[in-house]
Amino acid sequence: MVDVAIIGGGPGGYAAALYARNFDLEVALIEKDRPGGTCLIRGCIPAKQWLHIADVYTTVAEAAEYGVVTTEPKLDWAAALAKKNKTVEGVVRGLGGLLKSRGVEVIQGTGRLSAPNRVDVALADGGSRTVEASKVIVATGSHARTIPGYEIDGTTIVTSDHALDWETQPGRVAIIGGGVIGCEFASLLADVGSEVHVFEMMDQIIPGSDPESARVLQRLLGRRGVQFHLGVGVEPAEKTSNGVVVAAGDERVEVDVVLVAVGRGPNTEGIGLEGTKVQVDRGYVVVDKTTMETGEPGVYAVGDIVAGTPQLAHVGFAEGVAAVTHIATGETAPVNYDAIPRVTYTHPEVAEVGIGEEEAARRGIEVTTTKHFFNGVGRAVIVGQNQGHVKVFTAGDGPIVGASIVGPQAGEMIHELMYVVGWEALPSEAAAFIHAHPTLSEAIGETLMSAAGRPLH
User: Fold this and answer.
1) 457 falls within a domain
2) Which of 245, 319, 325, 333 could potentially form a cystine with 238 if both were Cys, beta carbons 3.0 to 4.6 Å apart?
3) Do 269 and 257 share a structural domain?
4) Distances 235 to 106, 230, 253, 259 between C-alpha atoms, Å
5) Torsional sign, CA 359, 364, 365, 371
6) Domain end (from 209, 227, 262)
7) Vertex 232, ends 226 and 234: CA angle to 5°?
8) Per-residue confidence of the chain (457 residues) as pLDDT tens digits?
9) Nearest Cα residue to 267 out of 298, 217, 319, 303
10) Which of 337, 357, 388 is the last residue of a domain?
């Protein structure tokens, strides 16, 4: 018997396995593929490698603006794909080595709960094995969803799983869904010259984000050629001899491929939950968020399958830590979900933390909004990325409760505001610290000074 059996080797699962070794717990990590999950193999890492490739391409294409003379860049798609694959392979292999060095037993196979303390494993090599454990953590991750009329064929109608491995660059692409995944693909494809259409049922892209920041991103992506169709539902796809027609209202757009990016569903079917006291809500597992324990004592759930928490790799990390803390010590280390950064890695990026005006209104919190634009920030002007802003939301005379950034390196800068929100800092406290000049982060300093009632520029 092991101390902890973990079903699923994605961010939530492998983080839990590694963290458990800090307490000398014996761990069995059960994964049907290789440790890494969606994030490392089919999501975060490969997608951001493609986005960086698009950024390099754009930088070379615009080099003449800085007096650097080059020939017109040409994207070797096959070489770019090979670079993506090399990056993924390196990261996944590194994780495997880390797990081995830390003494985590990795079992390659598909795990299923046959009892609260027992996992039956269909091994990848065709055999079987039963793992008995004092505690079990379920971290089976998620899968790409689709919608009626858009049956995935992997060629003309695809998900992000397929798009990350396109062997050639698509000329015309329709993206169904204007959330984070849809906008990231729109950004990188437009940057390398594809024709891109984004269809979104809501009236803004990245639903749930700050509406003004979303509008700024939409405007800047639109300048680079992305065509948005918002507030519309799409009709079933019509396949033609030349591609696929997507119809929405009076509009009909013919493309070479449709990328369905309408969110991700939890992988909870067929893993044995029905034989336990685990409560499931529309496929998601209900947990005590202070411990990540389910309704079945000794069975925990983390990551994308958890009901009511963001489907983000770093949330999976944190939930894995919370579950292991409770297993190893009996203490709680709950995740502060209001202090989790959320990043859309478009060009420019959008990054947020805490709550904004709409969520504050739902919670009955009156907030004051303070904003500073990048067009007055010297470093932003130097690098030619001076569009966008920093916003902070302050609860009355109290602490800063949220922030939104749209602009260059927003995903890196948001962490300063993560600490501000997490530590419930007052504007006057946060504004007392000095930012180096010239830096992009000066936009944060200027915003905080304005929030404190003493603006500088």
Assistant:
1) no
2) 245
3) no
4) 45, 14, 11, 15
5) positive
6) 262
7) 90
8) 999 999 999 999 999 999 999 999 999 999 999 999 999 999 999 999 999 999 999 999 999 999 999 999 999 999 999 999 999 999 999 999 999 999 999 999 999 999 999 999 999 999 999 999 999 999 999 999 999 999 999 999 999 999 999 999 999 999 999 999 999 999 999 999 999 999 999 999 999 999 999 999 999 999 999 999 999 999 999 999 999 999 998 899 999 999 999 999 999 999 999 989 999 999 999 999 999 999 999 999 999 999 999 999 999 999 999 999 999 999 999 999 999 999 999 999 999 999 999 999 999 999 999 999 999 999 999 999 999 999 999 999 999 999 999 999 999 999 999 999 999 999 999 999 999 999 999 999 999 999 999 998 8
9) 303
10) 337
- C-alpha distances (whole Å) from 448 to each of 393, 425, 442 are 10, 11, 10
Contact status, residue 36 vs residue 10, Cβ threshold 8 Å: yes
Query: Same domain, yes or no, for 132 and 93?
Result: yes
Count how many domains the chain has.
3
User: Token pair for residue 113?
Assistant: 């709960």
Our answer to whether residue 437 is catalytic in this structure is yes
Residue 456 included in any domain: no
d(CA 71, CA 399): 52
**Rounded to 5 degrees, what angle do the CA atoms 292, 356, 385 make?**
110
Range(s) of the domain holding residue 178: 157-262
CATH number at residue 240: 3.50.50.60
Structure tokens at 159: 């998900």
Kindly name the residue from 347, 389, 437, 457 that is annotated as catalytic: 437
CB of 441 closer than 8 Å to CB of 419: no
In a domain, 343, yes or no: no
Closest among 312, 335, 327, 411 to 12, alpha carbons compared? 312
